[in-house]
Amino acid sequence: MAKLNIKVVPGASRTEVAGWMGDALRVRVAAPPEKGKANREAERLLSRVLGLPEGNVLVTSGAASQWKVVEVQGLSRDQIIDRLSDMNRNKSE
Q1: Alpha-carbon distance values, 11 to 19, 64, 67, 86, 88 (Å)
Q2: What is the CA radius of gyration of the chain?
Q3: Are 38 and 46 in contact (CB under 8 A)?
Q4: Which residues in 60-73 are b (16+ Cβ under 10 Å) and which e?
Q5: How many Cα atoms occupy the beta-carbon half-sphere of 38 within 13 Å?
Q6: Staple partner for 26: which of 4, 18, 45, 72, CB 3.0–4.6 Å?
């Protein structure tokens, strides 16, 4: 299991991974920041992008903050970074 720092920007025009901010991943979600909707959308997005089942990515800290920690089951931190880098490469092609 790996931990990943993320910054979630709720209420965005579209849901997407926006890139790195230092050691934290910036994630934009269309969901509003109410009743955990933005957290759940961020979890679903990261699961999809990383190719994992939805239950494998969970917000474990910072539920009421833009700055969160997610736990990713099934991948190491290096594998997460590799998959996100591959996604960015494919976007630019």
Answers
A1: 17, 15, 15, 26, 22
A2: 12
A3: no
A4: eebeeeeebebebe
A5: 23
A6: 18
33: Cα separation from own chain's centroid: 15
Angle between helices 37-50 and 77-92 (to 10 degrees): 80
Q: Cβ(19)–Cβ(26) under 8 Å?
A: yes
pLDDT in tens for each of the 93 residues of the chain?
999 999 999 999 999 999 999 999 999 999 999 999 999 999 999 999 999 999 999 999 999 999 999 999 999 999 999 998 876 655 555
Q: In the structure encoding, which two tokens stand for residue 62, read together?
A: 């910072």
pTM of the model: 0.90
